[in-house]
C-alpha cells in the first residue's frame, strides 16, 4: 500500500509540473491539411499530465483558424498500440469535476494523436478561439470507451490553467505519530487556486476531513473552508478554491493574507482527533525565533525553556516547554514587567502549562490592556516569565520556573542569521554576523542562543551533524528545524547540553563542510 501511495503522489507531481511547465503560446504558421481549415498562426498549448499510468502524458494544442473554427490536437506519449482513447473537455476544474462540454477526437494509441475542428460545444453553443482560452474547463482522456472511469491523461485549460506560482505550508503531526504532510496552493490564471493536501502515512481506506479554520492553531476558530477529504489510500486531496464556505471570495491572493490554519481530522466520526495541523497565510512562522531559559525556582526538578517565534503578521507564538511537571497539573504562566529580581505587574497572560506534556502555547499580539506588541519588541522588552504551581492563592505564590527575557537576559539571545549560498560543489558561502562571502567558515555558537541559516543552495542539502562527513547519517537534530534544507530556513537553538564541537556538511559533497565550536 505504501508503494501505491508513492506511485499516486509521483503522478500528481507530474501533473502539476507539466501543467505549469509546458503550456505555451505558439504563433508559428501551420500548414493546413488539403481542403482543411487554414491556421491564422495563433495557437495555445496545454499540458496533459499522467493519471492512471505515470508513463502516459502529453499536450492539447488549440489552433485558431481563419474561418473562425478551432482545431484541437491531442498528442500523448507512450499510449499502447491499438488502443483508442476517448477525450472530452469538461466544465469546471479537474479538482471539482464537471459534465462534458465538448467531445474531442479519439486518441489513436498507435500514434498517440487525435485532431478535431469545431465551432460549437456539444449543445451547439458557438465557441470562438478567444472564448476557449477563457473557458472554465479541463480535459480528460480516458482508457477506452468501455472504461471511461480510468483516466490516462488530464489537464486544466483556459482560465483554470496554473500560472506556475505556488505556496506551500507545513502540516505537523498531532494526535497520530508519523502522520504529517504539506498543503500546497497553486495559483490559476483566473486568480483561484488548486489546493493539494499531501499527507504521509494515512491508514488505508480511511477518509480524513480537512478544513481551513479562522485564527491561529493555538487559538482555534470556526471552519472557514472545507476541503475534499484526504484519501487514506493515497494521502491526497485536491480542491479548487474560489470562495469560502460562506460565499466570500477566496482565491490565491486571499490565501496568502488569510488569518487561519488547517486541520486534518481522523474521520468524519472523530473530528475531535486532529492528525495534522499547520498555520497558513499571515500566521505562517517566518523562521525567526529566540529562546530563554526558565530556571528552577521554588519546586526542585522543574525547569525549561520559553521560545518566541515570529509570524508574518509580526505577532508572536510563545511556547513554554518544561520538564519535571507532575501529570495532571495545570501551571498558570505570565509575562511580567521588569526583571525577575525587581518584580512587576503582569503584562501578558500565557496559556497554563499542561503538567502531563509540560507544554503551553500562546498567540500574543497585545499586552494586557490592549496595546499591540510585535515580535521585534519582545527581543528588547524589559520583562520576565513566571510559571506557577497552580491557580490557588498558595499555588500562585509558588513559582516553579522563572526566567528573564528580552533586554534583561544580556546580549546575544536574539536570533542571529546567516545567509548561505554555495560556490559550485566546493563550498558553502556565508554572509552575515561579520562574514562576507566566507567559504566554509568555522563558526562559534553559544549554548542557549538561536541561529538561523537562510538557505539558497539547490542540490546541496545543509546538515548540522555530530560527525563530519557526507550523507544524512549522524544528523544532529536537537534544537534543529529543517535540517537538510536547500531553500528554507534552518534554525538551531543550541541546547545547554550540546557537545563542544558540531559540524555542517553537504549531504553529497565532502568539501562543503565546516566546524561549529559550541561555548557557554
TrEMBL record:
SUPFAM superfamilies: Cu,Zn superoxide dismutase-like, Cupredoxins. Keywords: Signal. Residues 1-24 form the signal peptide. InterPro entries: Cupredoxin, SOD-like_Cu/Zn_dom_sf. Belongs to the Cu-Zn superoxide dismutase family. This is CHRD domain-containing protein. It comes from Sediminicola arcticus.
Amino acid at each position: 500500500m505504501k508503494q501505491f501511495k508513492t506511485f499516486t503522489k509521483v503522478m500528481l507531481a507530474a501533473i502539476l509540473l507539466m501543467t505549469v511547465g509546458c503550456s505555451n503560446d505558439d504563433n508559428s504558421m501551420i500548414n493546413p491539411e488539403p481542403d482543411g481549415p487554414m491556421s491564422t498562426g495563433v495557437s495555445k498549448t496545454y499540458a496533459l499530465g499522467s493519471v492512471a499510468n505515470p508513463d502516459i502524458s502529453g499536450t492539447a494544442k488549440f489552433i485558431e483558424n481563419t474561418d473562425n473554427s478551432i482545431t484541437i490536437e491531442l498528442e500523448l506519449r507512450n499510449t499502447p498500440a491499438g488502443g483508442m482513447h476517448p477525450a472530452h473537455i469538461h466544465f469546471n476544474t479537474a479538482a471539482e469535476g464537471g459534465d462534458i462540454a465538448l467531445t474531442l477526437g479519439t486518441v489513436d494509441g498507435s500514434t498517440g494523436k487525435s485532431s478535431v475542428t469545431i465551432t460549437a460545444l456539444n449543445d451547439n453553443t458557438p465557441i470562438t478561439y478567444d472564448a476557449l482560452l477563457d473557458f472554465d474547463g479541463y480535459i480528460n482522456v480516458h482508457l477506452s470507451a468501455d472504461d471511461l472511469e480510468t483516466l490516462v491523461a488530464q489537464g486544466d485549460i483556459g482560465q483554470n490553467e496554473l500560472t506556475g506560482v505556488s505556496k506551500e505550508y507545513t502540516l505537523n503531526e498531532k494526535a497520530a505519530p508519523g502522520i504529517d504532510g504539506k498543503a500546497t496552493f497553486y495559483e490559476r490564471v483566473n486568480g483561484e487556486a488548486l489546493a493539494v493536501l499531501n499527507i504521509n502515512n494515512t491508514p488505508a481506506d480511511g477518509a480524513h476531513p480537512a478544513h481551513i479554520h479562522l485564527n491561529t492553531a493555538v487559538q482555534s476558530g470556526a471552519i472557514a473552508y472545507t476541503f475534499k477529504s484526504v484519501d487514506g489510500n493515497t494521502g491526497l486531496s485536491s480542491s479548487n478554491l474560489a470562495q469560502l464556505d460562506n460565499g466570500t471570495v477566496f482565491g490565491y491572493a486571499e490565501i496568502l493574507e488569510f488569518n487561519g490554519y488547517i486541520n486534518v481530522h481522523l474521520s468524519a466520526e472523530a473530528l475531535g482527533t486532529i492528525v495534522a495541523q499547520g498555520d497558513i497565510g499571515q500566521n505562517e512562522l517566518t523562521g525567526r525565533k529566540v529562546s530563554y531559559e526558565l530556571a528552577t525556582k521554588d519546586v526542585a526538578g522543574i525547569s525549561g525553556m520559553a521560545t518566541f517565534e515570529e509570524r508574518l503578521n509580526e505577532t508572536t507564538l510563545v511556547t513554554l516547554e518544561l520538564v519535571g511537571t507532575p501529570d495532571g497539573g495545570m501551571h498558570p504562566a505570565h509575562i511580567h514587567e521588569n526583571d525577575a529580581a525587581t518584580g512587576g505587574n503582569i503584562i501578558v497572560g500565557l496559556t497554563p502549562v499542561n503538567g502531563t506534556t509540560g507544554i503551553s502555547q500562546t498567540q500574543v499580539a497585545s499586552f494586557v490592556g490592549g496595546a499591540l506588541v510585535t515580535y521585534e519588541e519582545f527581543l528588547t522588552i524589559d520583562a520576565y516569565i513566571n510559571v506557577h504551581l497552580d491557580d490557588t492563592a498558595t499555588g500562585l505564590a509558588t513559582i516553579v520556573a522563572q526566567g528573564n527575557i528580552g533586554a534583561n537576559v544580556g546580549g546575544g539571545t536574539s536570533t542571529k542569521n546567516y545567509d548561505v549560498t554555495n560556490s559550485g560543489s566546493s563550498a558553502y558561502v556565508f554572509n552575515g554576523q561579520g562574514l562576507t562571502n566566507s567559504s566554509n567558515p568555522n563558526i562559534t555558537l553559544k549554548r542557549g542562543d538561536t541561529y538561523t541559516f537562510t538557505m539558497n543552495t539547490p542540490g546541496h542539502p545543509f546538515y548540522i551533524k555530530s560527525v563530519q562527513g557526507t550523507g544524512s547519517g549522524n544528523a544532529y537534530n536537537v534544537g534543529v528545524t529543517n535540517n537538510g534544507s536547500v531553500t528554507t530556513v534552518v534554525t538551531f537553538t543550541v541546547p545547554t547540553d550540546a557537545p563542544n564541537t558540531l559540524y555542517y556538511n553537504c549531504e553529497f559533497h565532502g568539501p562543503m563542510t565546516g566546524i561549529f565550536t559550541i561555548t557557554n
